[in-house]
Amino acid sequence: MRALITGATGFAGRHLAEECAKAGDAVVAWSSADVDLRDAAATRAGVEAVAPDVVYHLAARAHVGRSWSEPAATLQENVAMTLNVLEAVRTATPRAVVVAVSSGEVYGRPEGLPVAEDAALRPANPYAVSKAAADLLAGFYADAHGLCVVRPRAFNHAGPGQDASYAVAAFARQVVEGAVAGARRVRVVTGNPDTRRDYTDVRDVVRAYRGLAARGEPGVFNVCSGRTASGTELVDTLARLAGVDADIVVDPSLVRPSDVLEVRGDFSRLRTATGWAPGTPLERTLADTLAWWRARFGASSPDPVPGRRPDR
After folding, report:
1. Residue 103 in 3-state DSSP?
2. Where in the chain does DSSP place strands (E)?
3. Cis upstream peptide for 114 (omega within 30°)
4. How far apart are CA 58 and CA 77, in angstroms?
5. pLDDT tens digits for 20-76?
6. Pick from 177, 174, 155: which is nearest to 164 by CA?
7. Which DSSP letter does residue 26 get?
8. Are 269 and 117 in contact (CB under 8 A)?
């Protein structure tokens, strides 16, 4: 497939570009420096020039915490970029598959667990509102214009290369900083350490995206692991893998006003449609994240999970 990826320099975008290239796709990777997706004319011209078979739309203001301080920009830009990509496909390459990446955040506070795709959308933060609006917009384009729009709702994902503004990466960086400095006990600053989230390895997440694109049929699909971990459990596991002890320090400024205690998804629809299942244990994800941060600090990184390949 000829694949166009927006947000290709982001965390998931980089891994998706690697996954597509590995599968033999011709990849065109867009960052904000290549095309301003807030500009409708530029977006249409770019899509027309690429003539993709599949458009993976990942570009977004994606940080939940920052969305509280920048709600207007988060809402305006996420919806506008999605609209412009959909309009560009509709007018320039209407036969292309659009993988409009959504978020498990759209469900908000779940009425029951695990959360399936037919659950009500109850977004609980500005980022989630923006993604719910973009998700519904993508569904409208499928229904009203006959586009093949796939809407994967990705729950929390983690792995090597993630920015430290996200929980797992932030915890891993703090653990590695302490370990590299020679500390036996490290101080790890967190938000609410008791909230539980459904984490999937980013390499499994992008494998799901490509599988859905290859299937080429519209629909909504949860991309998740069906398992949860608390902040405390993540920190404890990271510390154990790094060979140190950890003291958790809660920063009140990192505790979100409407934190949901637990979020866990149901990926059975995705498994039925594509055969996908998460293949990377959480401990492997955490170990590879530690190794990535060790490399950033110039430290050696023996494999902390014996007997497993680095990509699994």
Report:
1. strand
2. 2-6, 26-30, 54-57, 97-100, 102-103, 148-154, 157-158, 185-190, 196-197, 200-201, 219-223, 229-230, 245-250
3. yes
4. 13
5. 999 999 999 999 999 999 999 999 999 999 999 999 999 999 888 899 999 999 999
6. 174
7. E
8. yes
- Residue ranges per structural domain of the chain: 2-157+199-223
3 state SS of 91: helix
DSSP one-letter string for 139-187: HHHHHHH--EEEEEEE--EE-TT--TTSHHHHHHHHHHHHHHTT-SEEE
Residue with tokens 């459904």: 198
pLDDT, the chain, mean: 94
2-157+199-223 placed in CATH 3.40.50.2300 = no
AA letter at 283: E
- Six-digit token string for 248: 């958790």
- Scanning the structure block, which residue is given the tokens 């998931």? 12
C-alpha angle 93/215/158, rounded to 5°?
100
